[in-house]
């Protein structure tokens, strides 16, 4: 229920905590402070199947919810 998401939101506000939900569809809806759409730009694997790990992952994150009337656009690079 939507009320649960607002309870989670109140539990972490004014704390240094990030409550992150990763899902294929929007689940927290209006209770979410930010909604980002992630698109994979590049992915490089290390090792041989079936024992592979991600060596490099590049993502583009685009805001799906306006932030102070200007959309947030950021590129993230994660190297493992």
Brief description of this entry?
By secondary structure, the chain is mostly beta strands. It has 1 helix and 3 strands; from the N terminus they run αβββ. Strand 1 and strand 2 (53-63) form a beta hairpin.
Report the uncertain regions: 69-80
Gap between N and C termini? 36 Å
Shape: elongated
Overall average pLDDT: 80
Query: Approximately how much beta-strand content do the residues carry?
Result: 35-45%
Work out the oligomeric state of the chains in this entry: single chain
Total count of helical runs of at least 4 residues: 1
Biggest sheet, in brief?
3 strands, antiparallel
Helices and strands, in order, run as: HEEE
List strands and helices in order, with pairings:
Elements: H1 2-12, E1 36-46, E2 53-63, E3 73-79
Antiparallel strand pairs: 1-2, 2-3
Structure notes:
- The protein is mainly beta.
- Helix content is 14%, strand content 36%.
- It is built from 1 helix and 3 strands, in the order αβββ.
- It is elongated.
- The termini are far apart.
- The C terminus is likely disordered.
What are its keywords?
80 residues, mainly beta, three-stranded antiparallel sheet, 3 strands, 36% strand, disordered C terminus
């Amino acid at each position: 229920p939507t009320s649960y998401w607002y309870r989670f939101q109140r539990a972490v506000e004014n704390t240094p905590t990030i409550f992150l939900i990763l899902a294929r569809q929007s689940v927290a809806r209006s209770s979410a402070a930010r909604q980002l759409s992630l698109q994979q730009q590049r992915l490089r694997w290390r090792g041989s199947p079936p024992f592979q790990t991600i060596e490099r992952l590049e993502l583009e994150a685009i805001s799906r919810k306006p932030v102070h009337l200007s959309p947030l656009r950021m590129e993230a690079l994660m190297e493992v």
